């Protein structure tokens, strides 16, 4: 890395050699922070001892990603100066006892990416830490461990998706008087568990996606007056449950994706005047339901993915002036260019997700002419190099997802030369330094996500100043996710 070469150059050298070379300018603080974030705990400690810039970078570092148990042990050493607030454990190189080395400074812990089984004894140790946010998706957690979490007074956010404990888990967590946000999706929870959670008066956000809570469970949750965010996707809420939810006046965000509510349910929900965000994806909604939702003046975000909306429904949505975010990916029957043109004329939308609708280069050119959108998703839209070049010329887009399109090297390089984009997701076959050179010179892009079955050659990026300040991610999953 250039930063490490500059660091090496800054170390003491023989007087004659030093005199013959021009002194390098000091490294900027953000470069020291980048070096600190990539170094092991022992390296950080060594560099901190000899360099005050590194000392400042280490002392200000608040987030760590750890891949080995011995790194946690280093954090508990008496001479360790790190005081991280957030720690993410990644991989399989951990034992439950390693968690006992977590520092007292930690307030956020992510265990969802590591393989470690936790007993009630292990969680009892976590209970002593001032944890505010805990993510444990995919972890096996027993009843006693859940009880410890429910009684933890500092814990405000808990993500525990995928537990098999069902209603008993819901009842235990419902007893918490400190939790504000709970994700217990895909956890075999039924009506009994939903009723217990509905009786809680401290939760503000609840995710019960993919649980069979039924109409009675949905009605119980609709009667709750403290929840502001509720996810009941794939929860079998039925017509009665949907009607009860539509009558709620305290919810601000509601997700009822995949509940077969149809146009009737959409019309009922459209009458609600307090919701700001609504997801009714995969609900067999047609023009009738879309027109009713388009007439709502309080919604600012609407997801209508995987429905069957025709020209009249799209035209009504395009004329709405209160929505700032609209998602209509994978509309059954696609979107003709006339529909794309109508949506592109809207000047109040800031985010438009229109992928999976085969709009082609013609649709891309139409959307590229819009100068008020800041986020655009055109994944799997049959866009080629010409469409990519048109979108690359747009001066207002900050985030673009163009994965699943055959844009070629020319299209890729054109996007790399864009000076407005901050986030780009793109599918590529294997490409080398030549294709990625524009990205190595791009100083505005902060996040670059490659969807590729073969890892692209990112040497040009890693050697550039732009690449070091850019988060580059390579994902081999090429699926047409909705």
Describe this structure in words.
By secondary structure, the chain is an alpha/beta fold. The chain has a domain at 1-61. 37% of the residues lie in helices and 14% in strands. The chain has an 18-stranded parallel β-sheet, covered by helices on one side. Strand 9 (253-255), helix 13 (262-270) and strand 10 form a beta-alpha-beta unit. Helix 9 packs parallel to helix 10 (191-198), helix 16 packs parallel to helix 17 (360-368) and helix 17 runs parallel beside helix 18. The longest helix is centred in the first third of the chain and has 10 residues, at 29-38. It is flat and about 65 Å long. It starts with a helix and ends in a 7-residue tail after the last strand. 39% of the residues are buried. The model is unreliable at 1-25 (pLDDT under 50).
Key features?
482 residues; 22 helices; flat; 18 strands
Describe the secondary structure blueprint for this structure:
Layout lengths: L1 H9 L4 H6 L8 H10 L2 H10 L1 H9 L2 E4 L2 H7 L10 E6 L16 E7 L5 H7 L6 E3 L7 H8 L6 E3 L7 H8 L6 E3 L7 H8 L6 E3 L6 H9 L6 E3 L6 H10 L5 E3 L6 H9 L6 E3 L7 H8 L6 E3 L7 H9 L5 E3 L9 H8 L6 E3 L6 H9 L6 E3 L7 H8 L6 E3 L6 H9 L6 E5 L5 H8 L6 E5 L7 H5 L1 H4 L2 E5 L7
Parallel strand pairs: 1-2, 2-3, 3-4, 4-5, 5-6, 6-7, 7-8, 8-9, 9-10, 10-11, 11-12, 12-13, 13-14, 14-15, 15-16, 16-17, 17-18
Helix pairs in contact: 3-5, 4-5, 7-8, 8-9, 9-10, 10-11, 11-12, 12-13, 13-14, 14-15, 15-16, 16-17, 17-18, 18-19, 19-20
| Oligomerization state | single chain
Residues in helix, %: 25-40%
Instruction: Give me the count of strands.
Output: 18
Output the structural class.
alpha/beta
Rounded to the nearest angstrom, the distance between the terminal CA atoms is 38 Å
How much is the radius of gyration in Å? Answer: 26 Å
* Shape category: flat
Please describe the biggest sheet, giving its number of strands, its sense, and whether it closes into a barrel: 18 strands, parallel
Fraction in beta strands: 5-15%
